[in-house]
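User: Some background: our group keeps a shared notebook of sequences we're curious about, and every so often someone picks one and asks for a predicted structure to add to the entry. Today it's my turn. The entry only has the sequence so far, pasted here. Could you supply the structure so I can complete it?
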Amino acid sequence: MLQTPVLLTSRLIVRLLQQNDIAAIVRYYTENRAFLEPFEPLRPTNFYSREFWSQQIEKSLIEFGYDRSLRLFLFKKDDPRTVIGAVNFTNMSQGILYSCSLGYSLAEKEQGNGYMNEALQAAIQYVFNDLNLHRISANYMPHNRRSANVLKKLGFVIEGYARDYLLINGKWEDHIRSSLINENWRPS
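Assistant: Of course. Here's the predicted structure to add to the notebook entry:
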C-alpha cells in the first residue's frame, strides 16, 4: 500500500483526514452547510456528527489502500488544524481505464483566494505521477462559473453536456463534463 500523501504547496497542506481532525471536519461542513448544499448531494442525517466522520476517516483510508479513492482535505499552513476545503478523487479505475472522478469544495469565506487552484495543482500532480492515472473527469453545473473557471485554468477540456446527470441537493441537475489527460502516463 502507498503511504498516504501529504502534499505541501506554498500556502497549504493537502492530506487525508486523521481521527484528530474530526472536530475540524464537522466544523467545516457545519459552517459551510448553506453555502455547499446547492452543489452537493443530499447528506445522510448523521453527516454532521463526529460518529459519521470517525467512520468516514477509516473508510477513506481503506478505499485509498485499495486504489478506490483519494479523499484529501485542505489546511492552511498557518492554521493547520482548520479544514478549509476538500478535494476528492473517486471512482478510481485501473485496468484499461486508469481514470477517476474529481469533486471539490471550498469554505465560503476562502473563496477567491486561489486556494482550490493551488490544491488541485498539487493533487493532480500526485494522481498523475504517483498513482499513474491517465484521465481525471470533472463535472460541474452550467451556472457554477467558479468551478468552470478553476477547471479551465487547470487545463480541463469540455467534452459535453449531460442532462439530468447528477442528483444534487435532491434534484437532478444538468452538468458540463470535462476531463484532463495525463500526457506522461506510462504502462505499469
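Suggested note for the entry: Residues 50-65 form the longest helix (16 residues). Helices lie at 22-31, 33-36, 50-65, 115-129, 145-154.
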